[in-house]
Amino acid sequence: MQSPELHPESSPWKAADSRPPDSRPLDPRPPDPEQPRQLRRIVRLFRPYRGRLALVGLLVGAASLVSVATPFLLKEILDTAIPQGRTGLLGLLALGMIAGAVLSSVFGVLQTLISTTVGQRVMHDLRTAVYSRLQSMSLAFYTRTRTGEVQSRIANDIGGMQATVTTTATSLVSNLTSVVATVIAMLALDWRLTAVSLLLLPLFVWISRRVGRERRRIATQRQKQMAAMAATVTESLSVSGILLGRTMGRSDSLTRSFATESERLIDLEVRSNMAGRWRMSVIGIVMAAMPAVIYWAAGVALHLGGPAISLGTLVAFVSLQQGLFRPTVSLLSTGVQIQTSLALFQRIFEYLDLPVDITEPDHPRRLTAPRGEIRFKDVEFRYDAAGAPVLAGIDLTVPAGGSLAVVGATGSGKSTLSHLVPRLYDVTAGSVTLDGVDVRDLDFDSLARAIGVVSQETYLFHASVAENLRFAKPDATDEELYTAARAAQIHDHIAALPEGYDTVVGERGHRFSGGEKQRLAIARTILRDPAVLVLDEATSALDTRTEHAVQQALDSLAASRTTITIAHRLSTVRSADEIVVLDAGRIVERGTHASLMAVDGRYAALVHRDAQLEPAG
């Protein structure tokens, strides 16, 4: 699986370079053949709200009819009421014009309210759909995708579509209705002047289409650059990023790198705003000059012996013409906005179309009371279908309540093996079963309830201790929190804090030490009470004293549970029911600690190595 832009060229850890922004002119390209399909997908986003949109259409139509009627009232005032001195008729016509203005305003406010509400609901649907799709992606997707890129798609891309989604649809319907109604009214007044007015319209449409395609290409480049900047900010301005930048003396370099990215964005923003600006200005100038052309055409027609055009008709026609050009220009601008927004929609649809590797079966099985027996049956796993296997020929059985330790050199496949149990990855061949049921046949909720994972990389939210613990069990009582924390040997430390369980842990838990964070993670897992426990090098990054305290908490957690331990320090796994040694993804030794030491093979060599390193540690 490969998604677009998952490897942006820019990185906050690269030295700032002096490459100039890409300022090459954008050559015209033929229309995108995918555009009609993309437009149909956009239209489908509005389908759930078609009732409200129909109401908007009625309001738009009513507003258009009212606006078209006003010039006819003006014509009657100039041609009948004033010349004939009919003050009563003049008053009625004037009141009609005022009433038209009031009704237009009321209709406009109502249609804006409804259309904005619909637009925001569509934005909500898009954000939720993208977030849901990203939640369902496998771990492999996130190992090759920068966090800032993901955030940019949700924030910048969807946010950039806001104006288009909330106002463009209404603007399109409103302006199109106004144009049609106005052209009909103009034809009713004088077809010859109408022909003169519409003479240049095809040219305007052609110009706007060229401008729209140009802005769309620039918008694609701009969003890519914004994603790169978002990734830079997310990585370099996190707590870990700041620590790394400061300790490595790279703060100035990171600032220069960010400034370079920002310079590229300046160029793209300027090009985006100036794209087609002169051509659209020419359209504006021509439209502003059209009333003069109409007056000239009416005078020439009269001079050549044509029928006279009344003053009221001429003024009403020019008023309609101005009313025509405003929605026409707006329609052209809307077309340009749509072209620009298509680039954003395309980026969002790319994420919505990402294939999901790990899916729930159509008819999943549910385990209500799992015992915890884990079985690996001739398991093979590859990260890439064309690559070499990371695991091969794995046959293991961990009985319910039993313990398995997996050891081996770095890169031997230990963590990958542990990731197969909770279905962070799916096996390429063979199967992993829980109580005899293939984990791929289980519903996600059952699997998550049955298997708890404590890894070396502890993640805590920027929230209180209680909120972090309740992430495992939202309805947990305070007493349950205290019990879990006592079992993890962290309760006394939390209780001694000024704010106790309401203490905010800070981003990624940086207000707590490594051992304290691990014990919080253990307490969180205890609260969930899983039948199977996967410990993925949970103590490898801790000092000996802290490891001892954490190991006691782990022993409490592992009691009466099926436990799979991925170990770096072998002192933590000597009591395991079975120990397997992995090398290049294959099991090369298996047995108890005593039997493997007696063989004096790979495992014994690892134990001797640990014994030599322990004094230095």
From TrEMBL:
Its main location: membrane. The chain crosses the membrane at residues 53-74, 89-114, 163-185, 191-208, 280-298. Residues 54-340 form the ABC transmembrane type-1 domain. Residues 1-37 are annotated as: Disordered. Signal peptide: none annotated. It is found in: Cell inner membrane. The keyword Nucleotide-binding applies. Keywords: ATP-binding, Cell inner membrane, Cell membrane, Membrane, Nucleotide-binding, Transmembrane, Transmembrane helix, Transport. It comes from the Bacteria. Residues 374-609 form the ABC transporter domain. GO terms for cellular component: plasma membrane. Gene3D superfamilies: ABC transporter type 1, transmembrane domain, P-loop containing nucleotide triphosphate hydrolases. One of its GO terms (molecular function) is ABC-type oligopeptide transporter activity. It is a multi-pass membrane protein. The keyword Cell cycle does not apply. Residues 16-37 have a biased composition (Basic and acidic residues). InterPro entries: AAA+_ATPase, ABC1_TM_dom, ABC1_TM_sf, ABC_transporter-like_ATP-bd, ABC_transporter-like_CS, P-loop_NTPase, Type_1_exporter. Belongs to the ABC transporter superfamily. Siderophore-Fe(3+) uptake transporter (SIUT) (TC 3.A.1.21) family. This is ABC transporter ATP-binding protein. It comes from Streptomyces triticagri.
